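Your task:
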Amino acid sequence: MNTAQFTPAGTMTAEDLGRIHLIGVGGVGMAGLARLFLTRGLPVSGSELREWPSLAGLRALGGTIHSTHEVTNLDGVDTVVYSSAIPQDHLELAEARRRGLRVLHRSEALAAAMTGRRTVAVAGTHGKTSTTSMVTMVLQQAGVDPSFVIGGEISEVGSGAHHGTGEHFVVEADESDRSFLIYRPYLSIITNVEADHLNTYGDLATLEAAFAEFARLTDPDGFIVTCADDAGGRRLAETLRAEGRRVWTYGESADADLRMSDVVSSAQGVRYLAEVEGRSLGEIRLSMPGRHMALNSAAAVLAAYLLELPVAAAEAALGAFPGVRRRFERKGVADGVLVYDEYAYHPTSMTLALQTLREVAGDGRLIVVFQPYRLYRTRDLQAEIAAALGIADELVLLEVFGPGEPREPGEGSVALIEAVPLPADRKVFVEAWDDVPAEVARRARTGDVVVTMGAPPISLMGDQLLDALLARTDGATAPRAGVGPDGAAATAG
């Protein structure tokens, strides 16, 4: 069980870090932190073996990106930043400690950037990236120019981080390794609390205790927000209220402080009526479907209300919200087949996403291309993940993405595919990345919806699927080369 400890936020600022080097800078979280430092005018370098899309933007901002891991990458560096995905014996991390450089976990470096700001921290088992993005856009619409770091990129904006001039700092708080416990929010939002990351916590009770600890770190003059519709959120609210803490809740539940009613979701979007403390806030509309997206937006509306920002700004921002990359992201249409990409890998978020995609599919079929994320999660939640995948009409399953995890015989997707409640001819385990596009093109029909879902590498598959579908009609012999799950070039189909 992971028991990593991190240094709580103190008085150190980002400027105190000097020249900053990030190991594994291409990951979404690390790339966002690098972007924040660069837009703040700080010298940044990073190392990354894969050519992730985010790296071009970092170079354009003046970042130095090394395509290999070498000890010489640390020459002239003052602070080295790593994430929990980096092993402790990593070449650059070990060298940084040997040289006596300042070494910080990503969360510690992020905490330094938050010093002196009024932080809005969004935590939760799922929904936190979309909620953090919505809160950010609401604050931007209100004209307060917040700084932000999100675990994803806001679509069309093309960025998951920014150094703003205002007093607010919006951050997605990651519970997976306990690092969210170093933050000191002014406003904390917990979207839901469900069993996950049990490799770190061991059991649900310990996980719930960590969320309670996170909430207690909220400024006494600030606000704690939880979801009244989530069982874990309700238990958390009850615990905190029993301690005399003021907790605000949102949801469709009759006792929610911000109550949603008349929720209507269709392929065109979702809308609902909102009221808080008996005051009507009018109708909130989003251009994307899904009751779960409506819940996320309600948290953003409540945050605006508590921060005394114009509710009209929240309505306008959410009405124009473009979504977040890898969250219900439309990739394109080819040969009459609509392709989406979705980050969901926890069974609850998978279920919500697939139910929403069913609305979009209408009379068409839903084909899911799923890459499970982490062996421990796939093992511990196999029945729940399999049930969620059973919503699909057709399933193409890849091997589990679990770098560094030991694999026992029979573990992973071999066991998962058997548990999915679909007929044998409507589900298939495809071991080779290169074979997936052709398999999808063989199964998909005009009017179907295909979604790539799960671990980060599967986001690279969407364009290859579109090419394979297009090749059915234009006579092409094969789709263009893409990038495989290991970052190397791969020829699909």
In short: Confidence is low (pLDDT under 50) at residues 476-493. The two ends are 40 Å apart (CA to CA). Residues 291-306 form the longest helix (16 residues). The chain has three domains: 14-106, 117-319, 329-491.
